[in-house]
Amino acid sequence: MNAYEIVMKSREKGRPTAMQYIEKIVEGFIELHGDRRFADDAAVIGGVGFIEGKPVTVIGIEKGTDTKAKIEHNFGCAHPEGYRKAMRLMKEAEKFHRPVLCLVDTSGAYCGIGAEERGQSEAIANSIMEMIRLRTPTLSIIIGEGGSGGALGLSAADEVWITETATYSVISPEGCASILWKDSGKVAQACESLKLTANDLLALRAVEKVLPELQFSDEFFVGLKAEIAQFFAQKRGVAPDRLIEERYERFRKF
Amino acid sequence: MNFEDLKKFFFKKPKNALEGTDEAAPQEAPSTEAVIPEKLAEKCEKCGKIILSDEMRENCGVCPKCGYYKKLNARERIEICAEQFEELFGEETSENILDFPGYDEKLAALREKTGERDGAVCGRATIGGVECAVFSMDYRFMMGSMGHTVGEKITKTFEYATENRLPVVGFVLSGGARMQEGIVSLMQMAKTSAAVAKHSEAGLLYISVLTDPTTGGVSASFAFESDVIMAEKGALIGFAGPRVIEQTIRQKLPEGFQRAEFLQKKGFVDLIVERKEMKEKLASLLKIHCMEADA
Ligand SMILES: [Zn+2]
């Protein structure tokens, strides 16, 4: 597959969304709602449960599967309250020394009047800053689209993994083609130039692991669950000071 | 990142002398170059009047006729706010990391034209007698977009300030991330944020000064992670650019939307300052924060 085909695949209908990952991976998930400031943003879902018997906080950006759900979840484009909800849940996880798993799938944070009025920039900025200093283990997995700051807001983690046909980019290829080249016909070229595929990202060390998707079969989820459990088990004994120092170095290298 | 588009959008707007500073960049008025001797006088980009350059400089780049805020480059901004400045990390530079088409040429041309290596100038300064670390972003370098060099210099500024126990004053100006550097550009948001957090945890002050424009990835990172957020009058500040929002919601945006005054009303800006009082306000804030309360 070339980069353009991968971009199309990352947005494909029928691709498992965050909620489906949670159903497959997390036992006894209890969803927790709201940012305690303004609203409950359905584009971001979050809650607590177990992975292989160990408590975990899970936060995902949910695109929705059918038309009704897509509208309800705003197509996975979060408002400021979505990032504030995520931050609140992360702080709660920190308090109880519980690891945090983020499932990222968004074309980007929402661009609209309400989002601006309620401080989209401030919300994302502080989500990054809080997450990068969180005194508990964190793992982000990009499962579809990793759209710019909206994805980074939930990806300032100890490690970032990506599934093999997911993408992570500073801008959408469409945006890049139209802004830089004023030519919407150059989208495929932008897909290549932005180096946004899983393998490009691995080479650039923006992700630690590329996960083979195995057509999103049960085998994929079973394997993923084991890998996540193993990752958190490894991190469990690490002192918080060391966690945040290692995280600092992870991002410092760029 | 989308400032070129923003500019096009604002060209269509009716002119209002009291409004922001988003008109054409100075280099886009070649017709006047022949008649005005360089550096002696210049044409106001808003009202079109010819102003003596000395007068414009003394007025901090504010048009004495119409009050228009001319954009200041990174060094001019430091000059009007600091009585002393010593540049640091000036050697920092980076090349076309992703081998992005056309980027080498663009960087070379901008370096030639501006004499700067990239879009940020950093160092140690004295403002109102208080020593601090500063960074200042440059509109001439792809509208202050943040790639590796800008992110690295700003990160180093915070690390230097943490080590030397200095406050940081940051003059922010950016259209967003530098898309030619792809994911590396996005990672600068995380890298700078981590350095800001560390500086903050050390109990040190950071004042961000948001100038026109502050949008995109920079606004969604260190612009809004400060203890005090100051904005220059009329500055455009937002996550998404107005044109992107209009395309998304398919309606016109209200007058004054995303201006500093709007953000203050919504609760996201501590204070708005006129350019001429910026130095004094910074000096006062630095003094208040850096004096031991029980001394
Ligand atoms: Zn004027």
What does this structure look like?
The complex is a heterodimer of chains A (254) and B (295). Chain A is built from 12 helices and 8 strands. With 254 residues, chain A is an alpha/beta fold. In chain A, strands 1, 2, 3, 4, 5, 6, 7 and 8 form an 8-stranded mixed sheet that branches. Chain B is α/β, with parallel strands linked by helices and 295 residues long. Chain B folds into 2 domains: 26-70, no CATH class; 72-294, 2-enoyl-CoA Hydratase, Chain A, domain 1. Chain B has helices spanning 3-11, 53-58, 74-81, 103-114, 148-163, 182-201, 216-219, 242-249, 260-266, 278-290; strands spanning 41-43, 50-52, 84-88, 120-127, 130-137, 168-174, 206-215, 228-232, 237-238, 271-273. In chain B, strand 7 (206-215), helix 7 and strand 8 (228-232) form a beta-alpha-beta unit. The longest helix of chain B has 20 residues, at 182-201. At the A-B interface, helix 5, helix 6, helix 7, helix 8 and helix 12 of A face helix 5, helix 6, helix 7, strand 9 and helix 8 of B. The structure holds zinc ion.
The span between the termini of chain A is: 28 Å
Radius of gyration of chain A: 17 Å
End-to-end Cα distance of chain B, whole Å, is: 46 Å
CATH class of chain A: Alpha Beta
Mean pLDDT of chain A: 97
Instruction: List the quaternary state of the chains.
Output: heterodimer
The CATH topology annotation of the largest domain in chain B reads as 2-enoyl-CoA Hydratase, Chain A, domain 1
Total number of helical segments of chain B? 10
Written as H for each helix and E for each strand, in order along the chain, the element string of chain A is HHEEEHHEHHEHEEHHHEHH
Name the biggest interface.
A-B, 47 and 54 residues
Name the helicity range of chain B. Answer: 25-40%
* CATH architecture heading of chain A: Alpha-Beta Complex
- How many structural units, i.e. domains of chain B? 2
State the helical fraction of chain A: 40-55%
Structural class of chain A: alpha/beta
**What spatial form of chain A do the alpha-carbon principal axes imply?**
globular
Largest sheet of chain A: 8 strands, mixed
CATH superfamily of chain A: 2-enoyl-CoA Hydratase, Chain A, domain 1
Cofactors and ligands: zinc ion
